[in-house]
Amino acid sequence: MHHDTTNECTDCPLTRATTTRLDFLKQLGTAVAGTGLLLSATTRDAQALAVRVGHALFVQGDDVTYDVPTGDGATIDKTNQVILVRDGNQVYAFSLSCPHQNTALKWLADDHIFQCPKHKSKYKPNGTFISGRATRGMDRLPIKKQDNHVVVNANVAYRQDKDGKEWDAAVVTLDTKDHPSR
């Protein structure tokens, strides 16, 4: 039986400094398919977030538009390098990569956290840093609600340690009429 070892630091092509954006996206697609990120919440494990691969409705300049998520979960948009997360009535947009060394993050459903496969940095669904080699939370992207959509500026990233005020404000709070999460 062949065992995939692409999550090991020395074998992970996503961790090499010479990785091109196209290589990164190809490897991310493989990682998403290979690590079982297509998970769904169950009645027994109501804390688990559904994780799925998704796409923007449209892109105009730096703005990437998505439907307001209808339930708790994360959508990974490889094309625009965005993770869109709904957790309760909060919606966040994050850079796809770990702030430590830009490795694609993965979701650990059983632990209800994001984790970097390279150095094991861990993050809450709202991007708050928990532990590991990283020294700050996931990079949040500016996000706003427009009608039944959220619009993300995919080319601006707020760092928790340097842009604290903007990082804290980079969230959309939904009313219960905005697609209840359960």
Q: Indicate the proportion of strand residues.
A: 25-35%
Order of helices and strands: HEEEEEEEEEEEEHE
Low-confidence stretches: 1-19, 30-47
Helix/sheet category: mainly beta
Largest sheet: 5 strands, mixed
CATH topology: Rieske Iron-sulfur Protein
Euclidean distance between termini CA atoms: 41 Å
Mean pLDDT, all residues? 77
What is the helical fraction, as a range of percent?
10-25%
* Total count of domains: 1
Please state how the strands of the largest beta sheet are arranged side by side: 1-4-5-6-13
Summarize the structure.
The protein is mainly β and 182 residues long. It has helices at residues 21-34, 164-169, and strands at residues 50-53, 58-60, 63-67, 73-77, 82-87, 90-95, 106-108, 113-115, 122-123, 129-131, 143-146, 149-153, 172-173.
Question: What can you see in these coordinates?
Answer:
The protein is mainly β and 182 residues long. It has one domain: Rieske Iron-sulfur Protein (3-layer Sandwich). 11% of the residues lie in helices and 28% in strands. It contains 2 helices and 13 strands. Strand 2 and strand 3 form a beta hairpin. The chain is globular. Mean pLDDT is 77; it is low at 1-19 and 30-47.
